[in-house]
Amino acid sequence: MLDAALEGLVTKKAADCRAALTAAGVAVIPSALADDRLGPLLLASEFCTDVLCRFPAECAAMAIAGEFDRPNTRPYYAAALAAELAEIADETQWMQRIRRYRNRQMLRWVYRDVNGLCSLEELTDELSEFAEAAVDAAIAFAEDPLKQRHGEPVGEDSGQIQRMVVLGMGKLGAQELNLSSDIDLIFSYAEPGETNGKFCISNQEYFIKLGQAVIRLLDQVTADGFVFRIDMRLRPWGDGSALALSFTAMERYYEQHGREWERYAFIKALPIAGDLAGGEELLATLRPFVYRRYIDFSAFAALREMKGMIEREVRRKDMADNVKLGSGGIRDVEFIAQAFQLIRGGVHKALQQRPLLPVMNVLVDLGLLPAAVRDDLAAAYRFLRQVEHRIQALHDHQTQLLPLDPAGQARLAASLGFAGWADFYAALERHRDKVREQFRLVVVERVEAKAATPASDKARALWLDSCDVSPEVMAELGFKQAAESAERLQALRTGRALRTLPLLSRERLDQFMPLLIEEISAHAESDLALTRCLPLVESVLRRTSYLVMLLENPAALQRMVTLCAASPWIADELARYPVLLDELLNAETLYTPPQKEQLLSELRQQLLRVPHDDVEEQMRVLRIFKKSHVLRVAASDLQGTLPLMKVSDYLSWIAEAVLESVVGLSWQQMTARYGFPRRADGSLSTGDFMVAGYGKLGGIELGYGSDLDLVFVHNVANDDDTDGPKPISGGEFYARMAQKIISLLTTSTSAGQLYEVDMRLRPSGNSGMLVSSLKAQEEYQLHHAWTWEHQALVRARLVAGDEALGRLFDDLRRRVLCQPRDLAKLRAEVLEMRQKMRDHLSSTAKNPGSHVFDLKHDAGGIVDIEFMVQYGVLAWANTYPELARYSDNVRILDGFAACGCMPADLAVRLKEAYLAFRAQSHRLALAQQPARVAPTEFVEIRALVQQCWNNLFEIV
């Protein structure tokens, strides 16, 4: 029985629907739309109510024809859509017709689901078949105008007409689509070549245009809604890469760059439209990438890593009640099955299936899963999918979050047949608990941390005693500045923040604080550690899930205390961004930062889960990614597991991964709005844009607080318009794209800022264009640049964007650096620039009478070494072109020695001096101190650098 409020809601909506049917001339209400059948639909879905009221005659006709009472078995939708869309040539009309058809079918699917007229398998298979038919119909409609203009694409080897291959990924590939799912697609084609029409274009360009049209036809939101949201981010290299790739390019990518999570994604890959036979051929070539020939237990680690990333996202976004991603949700059931598929699928071919439930049966047959466990997981999966469908049916939104408002909770519970929210939630938790337990047993395979034992009596009494914190007890625990530390602890204990805490949060804090005090007391610098850890505690008082995490992971708590005591910078970062505490859970990853390719892959995975148009969330993901990995580098630096050169390498790689992703996001947003810019030959650009890093980034010498010196370069026709709905010139396209990149990097959000960006090294500095063509760069560098700009070019290199353009830029860089120069004039100009810098930036310039040594700007410091290196390249690269090969000072100094331009022992000593200065700079940055030391430090090194300076520049 429904409560009065829900019964009143259904009664009113039923009256509205009957009125709409009567107004549309439906004299007799079909039995399928009688109150006993209509009520569950109206309770479950506002969207379907709206469809019924907007199109009453059409819905009544469906009911009279019996469409609500019978399943539509394959291949129903291919023929149905062909009839529905027959002889429509106008794009707007085609889009309207298919959207309205989809909405009516949506009403039918929800109707059958809520009235118990179909199984989960029937419903998801119909949804999947409709998606397949819709993509095929969109291809057929979009191809006609393309063929008329460009002809058909022809393979360069076979001479055969090429057709688009569309792979469905995720739930579409498994034919398990849900009610309001997006569809993950990958576009491909067999062979490169050209079209055979009047306006000939490459096959790739043809299929990119075709793919863009298909996406627009199905994804674009109109007054009638959408057909499917389309996600293309699972394609090789993700956003920013070509929308369609040849089979050869696909094979090469997965052979050379494929990641574990892409193996996971391809378990469900299925050709769903276009050239189905070609799609099967492609998947056959990729099968060895997905399924290893041996039992592959490394998949456990990969799945745990993926699950960990999802759990962090759930925690960050407070999505514990997400029935898909939350603990014990749909994704966990999928992980359990797919762990076995990745590990054993190459040996047991029966596991190479896409749908989930049949895989569970195979696992039982193989003795890998008890039948009772299979039954529990299958029941949980069906229940969770039903809940997911009810949540999505309400407004046709792609969400898996349980409602928070009491009215929404009551409505969902009643729609699922429960007396109230408490009964429903208890049933949900019973299912999720069973999934959690099996996920822990099958996938997590973690080494159990030691139990969080009761804290010592002294630490417990110190925090929980009703009296003030006792300095005497603090001293007994080992605090040297006991009175001051007791005062700090007392200030937290009696502060306003604690007085207003909810009861559960206070209980968690009272569990946590004795453990923290005990851990800190064991540290050699206990007073310092306490001072630095308390702001972190204050920052998470209302997000006590982080306290629970530390309670359950004593090793993470120990690492937190150690790192905070070692570095005020780390302590400050953790206090400002507690989400970084997740990094402390695993010592192996904390103290072993990933390589560049792993960084790119991880960031791409995180961005894949962000909607295309959610710029705010993209910025948050980028910022947390950067901060978490810089934290790993800092932890490894302090631990001594990373040498100086590697610290700078990793910090530079993090910046490059961020820049690569930012360029891809900006390109995607720009092309979606304006289309693609054109090259000089009229063909459409698929990139032709690069970011050059200068300074520390260019020299692979980034520090913890370094800004990014960037220059943007493109290589398309400045004046030709883009091919999109809002055409702009190529020059304007890249200028706007550069602005987007800078905005993504520099905007301050709640997660901070990515990087400060300095663009003053572009041609003509701040007065110049934000992005210039390669041709303009060449003209400026060869004929107008100052000597100091050529000095800067020594440390320039491609850091993100088009690699082909990067090679052209590097060729230009080498030509400029290898020009013959008047050495006397060069020497004078370098000395003049160095003196200007000393006059403005040295320690005495900033503070006359200063008695410190500025590691960077004072005589004998870092900048002197950099200027000597830059002078040497400009002076000697004409004779020794190999000196223009590298952009970092260390390898350039090696080059000086190899070419005989500098004695080998002197080059070694200069390198050691340079690395010593940089190492000290890193240490001071982590201590939040300026890069200055006492004048008594580095005396011999400074003397060496100054002597080299005087000798090189012939200063007596």
What does this structure look like?
- By secondary structure, the chain is mostly helical.
- The chain has 5 domains: 71-290, 2-Layer Sandwich (Beta Polymerase, domain 2); 298-443, Nucleotidyltransferases  domain 2 (Four Helix Bundle (Hemerythrin (Met), subunit A), Up-down Bundle), CATH 1.20.120; 457-585, Four Helix Bundle (Hemerythrin (Met), subunit A) (Up-down Bundle), CATH 1.20.120; 606-817, Beta Polymerase, domain 2 (2-Layer Sandwich); 823-952, Nucleotidyltransferases  domain 2 (Four Helix Bundle (Hemerythrin (Met), subunit A)), CATH 1.20.120.330.
- The protein has 42 helices and 14 strands.
- Helix 5 (76-84) packs across helix 7 (120-150) and helix 13 (298-316) packs antiparallel against helix 14 (330-344).
- The model is unreliable at 445-455 (pLDDT under 50).
